[in-house]
Amino acid sequence: MILEYKLESLNSIALEVLKTLKHRVVLFDGAMGTGKTTLIKALAKELGSTDVISSPTFSLVNTYTTANLDIYHFDLYRLNAIEEAYDFGIEDYLDSNNWLFIEWPDIIKPLLSDDYHIISLKQLGTEKRQLTLK
Predict the structure, then answer these.
(1) Which residues contact 113 (CB under 8 A, 6 or more apart)?
(2) What's the distance, CA 111 to chain centroid?
């Protein structure tokens, strides 16, 4: 699925993405500034979270609650080795059956089963984005 959208339609795009997902593990690909965290905020809101959503750049993972499942939001940009993911217990998160939204996921891809989606974001100007869901 490929969608082009403006930032003001982000909530409806998030809802459309959620209706399409078959797995709860979603990897986010895109250059800095393409809107990965902004999209995750919209996805969490559509899943029912009322938590404040922010980038976990320094904490590596933030947890948001919903009525049904937790959402774990990862930013793995600062990891240099897979051992660092083991240090914070990545395997427990992967086995949790909750939502996993993972920015900069390349370092942990060897730990993943085939049950995940990839959302690639591309900036098409200051207000427009292209989302590709695989």
Answers:
(1) none
(2) 17
Residues in the chain: 134
Of 58 and 116, more confident: 116
CA distance 1 to 43: 16
Domains and CATH numbers, the chain: 2-133 (3.40.50.300)
Helix, coil or strand: residue 7: helix
Interior angle at CA 84, CA 73 and CA 40, nearest 5 = 10
- 53-56: Cβ within 8 A, 24+ apart: 55/103
pLDDT score recorded for residue 56: 86
Cα–Cα dist 31/15, whole Å: 23
Question: Would you tell me how many other CB atoms lie within 10 Å of the CB of residue 95?
Answer: 8
Q: What is the pTM for the complete model shown?
A: 0.94
Confidence of residue 27 (pLDDT cuts 50, 70, 90): very high
27 contacts 108 by C-beta, under 8 angstroms? no
